[in-house]
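Postdoc handover notes: sequence design on the structure in folder B. Input C-alpha cells:
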C-alpha cells in the first residue's frame, strides 16, 4: 500500500474511486465535479439519498469516466476528532468494498490542519485493510495507491508528513490487532518474546532498537516473586520482554511503556465463569500495544528514547497455582496478600514498574486490560487514565482527543487506597466490590512513587465483543500522539 500527496488538476486524474468529503452545500471541487457529472451529487442530495450529515456515505458509480466512482462522505456537523475518525473509517470501509486499486482522497478541510486530515486518512486506510486471515499471508488487499489531493501546492508537504505518520500508526495498530486476535495456544509468552526479538533485529537508519528477554530464573534473581506467582499455575514459561528504542542521544531520559501481557487469563484458582472466557485471550492487548508502538517507531524513527517492558505470562489453575490467601513479596520488598488470583494484572505490573525505575524514566505509562469495572464506568469509548502527576494526565487526555483515541481520568485518592488494607501483608491485591478501576490504580501507584507515572486501563477499548469480535489496535494512536508530542519537545 502506497500513499502520496499531490495537487494535480482534477481534470487530469484517473482513478478507481474518488473520495469526496462534502456537506449538503457543494463548494469548490465538489461543485466542479457535480458540474462534470451532470449534477449527480446535487441530484442525490435533492432525492434525499445523501444528506451530507456527518459520517454518511454514498457510493456513486460513474461508468465510462476517468474517475470510475465517487464516494461521498458527509461532513455537516463534524465537530470533533472522534466524529472525523468515524467518517473517515466509514469511507475506508466503503472504499475497500469496491475493490479499487487506486483511490483519490480530496482534501475536505475536516480537521484543523491538512496534516491531521492526511494522517487520519492513512491511519484509517491501513487499519481498515487489516484482515485476520490475510495478515502476513500472500493474499494482498486490492487497494495499492491512495493519493491525497490538496488544493494548494504548498500543502502537499504537510499532507505527505501526515500520510507517513498515519500509515505508520495504522501499521502499529495492525500489529497490536493481530497479536490480540491470535488464539492463546499460538500467542504464548514465548511467541510474544519471539515477535519482540524479530522486531529488535530491524536495522534502522537514524535510530536503533534492541530486545532482551528475561526468563524465569533471571526474574527469580531480581526477586520478581509477585510476577512469578501468576505464572506458577501454568505450563507455559513466563517472559519479561524488554525493548529499547533509541532515537536520540542516550542522555535523554526515556518514556517507559509497560504493557500487561497475560496471554490467557482463566482467573487462576479464582476461576472465571465459562461464558465469554475465550475473550481472555485479549488480556495481552496492553503488551501488544507496546509492540505496535515499537513497530510504528521503527518506521518513523522519531528523535526520542522509548523503553518497552512487557511482562508476559498465562494465568492458569494447576496444582502449583497460587491460592487465595497466599502472600508474596514483590521486587520492591512490599508484601501482597493475594485474595483473588483473578486480580493478576496488577501482580505482574507491580514488579515491572519497580524494574522500570532502572531506566531513569522521563515518564512511565502502563497499559493494561486491568478491570471489568472500567467497562462499567466508561464503556467502550474511553480508556481510563489514572496518574500521580496531573501534567502527564493532561498530556494523555490531549493526545487522546487529538488522535480520537480518548481517555478519561479517574482519581487516585487516599480514601480509595485505604481499601487495599490487609491483615497479613502490606496490602491485599483487591479492594472490594466498589471502584475497582481506582483501587487497581491505587495498588499500582504504590510501586510508582519514584517517577511520573500514568496507568491506562484499556479493558473496554482494546477489543470489541459480539459479532464483530476482535482487537481494535487501541491505544496505539493515543500512545503515538503522546510520543510524537514528546519527541517534538526534544527538537526544540
Ligand atoms: N483481565 C481481567 C480484566 C477484564 C475483565 C478485562 C473483563 C476485560 C474484560 C483482570 O485480570 C481481572 O480479572 N480483573 C478482575 C479484578 C477483580 C478480581 C478485583 C475483574 O475486573 O473482575
Ligand atoms: Mn484476571
Ligand atoms: Zn487479566
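Designed sequence:
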Amino acid at each position: 500500500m502506497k500513499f502520496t500527496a499531490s495537487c494535480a488538476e482534477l481534470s487530469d486524474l484517473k482513478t478507481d474511486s474518488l473520495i469526496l468529503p462534502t456537506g449538503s452545500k457543494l463548494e469548490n471541487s465538489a461543485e466542479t465535479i457535480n458540474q462534470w457529472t451532470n449534477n449527480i451529487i446535487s441530484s442525490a442530495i435533492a432525492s434525499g439519498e445523501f444528506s451530507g450529515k456527518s459520517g454518511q456515505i454514498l457510493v456513486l458509480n460513474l461508468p465510462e469516466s476517468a474517475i470510475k466512482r465517487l464516494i461521498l462522505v458527509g461532513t455537516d456537523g463534524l465537530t470533533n476528532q472522534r466524529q472525523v475518525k468515524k467518517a473517515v473509517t466509514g469511507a475506508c470501509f466503503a472504499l475497500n468494498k469496491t475493490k479499487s486499486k487506486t483511490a483519490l482522497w480530496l482534501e475536505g478541510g475536516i480537521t484543523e490542519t491538512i496534516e491531521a486530515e492526511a494522517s487520519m486518512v492513512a491511519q484509517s486506510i491501513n487499519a481498515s485493510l487489516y484482515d485476520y486471515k490475510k495478515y502476513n499471508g500472500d493474499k494482498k488487499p486490492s487497494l495499492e495507491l491512495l493519493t491525497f489531493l490538496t488544493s494548494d501546492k504548498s500543502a502537499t508537504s504537510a499532507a505527505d508528513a501526515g500520510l507517513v505518520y498515519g500509515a505508520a500508526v495504522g501499521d502499529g495498530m495492525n500489529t497490536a490487532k493481530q497479536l490480540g486476535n491470535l488464539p492463546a495456544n499460538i500467542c504464548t509468552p514465548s511467541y510474544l518474546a519471539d515477535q519482540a526479538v524479530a522486531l529488535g533485529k530491524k536495522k534502522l537508519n537514524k535510530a536503533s532498537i534492541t530486545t532482551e528477554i528475561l526468563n524465569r530464573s533471571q526474574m527469580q534473581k531480581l526477586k520478581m516473586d509477585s510476577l512469578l506467582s501468576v505464572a506458577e499455575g501454568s505450563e507455559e514459561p513466563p517472559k519479561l520482554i524488554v525493548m529499547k528504542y533509541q532515537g536520540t542521544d542516550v542522555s535523554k531520559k526515556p518514556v517507559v511503556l509497560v504493557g500487561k501481557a497475560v496471554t490467557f487469563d482463566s482467573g487462576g484458582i479464582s476461576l472465571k465463569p465459562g461464558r465469554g472466557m475465550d475473550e481472555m485471550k485479549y488480556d495481552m492487548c496492553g503488551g501488544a500495544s507496546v509492540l505496535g508502538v515499537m513497530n510504528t517507531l521503527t518506521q518513523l524513527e522519531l528523535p526520542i528514547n522509548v523503553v518497552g517492558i512487557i511482562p508476559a505470562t498465562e494465568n492458569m489453575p494447576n496444582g502449583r497455582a497460587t491460592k487465595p490467601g497466599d502472600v508474596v513479596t514483590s521486587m520492591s520488598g512490599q508484601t501482597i496478600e493475594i485474595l483473588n488470583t483473578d486480580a493478576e494484572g496488577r501482580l505482574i505490573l507491580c514488579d515491572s514498574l519497580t524494574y522500570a525505575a532502572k531506566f531513569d524514566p522521563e515518564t512511565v505509562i502502563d497499559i493494561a486490560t486491568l478491570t471489568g469495572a472500567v467497562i462499567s464506568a466508561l464503556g467502550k469509548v474511553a480508556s481510563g487514565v489514572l496518574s500521580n502527576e496531573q501534567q502527564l494526565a493532561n498530556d494523555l487526555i490531549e493526545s487522546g482527543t487529538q488522535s480520537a483515541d480518548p481517555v478519561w481520568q479517574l482519581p487516585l485518592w487516599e480514601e480509595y487506597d485505604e481499601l487495599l488494607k490487609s491483615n497479613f501483608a502490606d496490602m491485599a491485591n483487591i479492594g472490594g466490590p466498589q471502584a475497582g478501576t481506582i483501587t487497581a490504580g491505587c495498588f499500582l501507584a504504590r510501586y510508582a512513587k519514584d517517577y511520573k507515572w500514568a496507568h491506562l486501563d484499556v479493558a473496554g477499548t482494546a477489543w470489541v465483543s459480539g459479532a464483530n469480535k476482535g482487537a481494535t489496535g487501541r491505544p496505539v494512536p493515543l500512545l503515538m500522539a503522546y510520543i510524537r508530542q514528546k519527541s517534538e519537545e526534544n527538537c526544540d
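Context for whoever picks this up: Residues 94 and 179 are 26 Å apart (CA to CA). Don't rerun without checking with the PI first.
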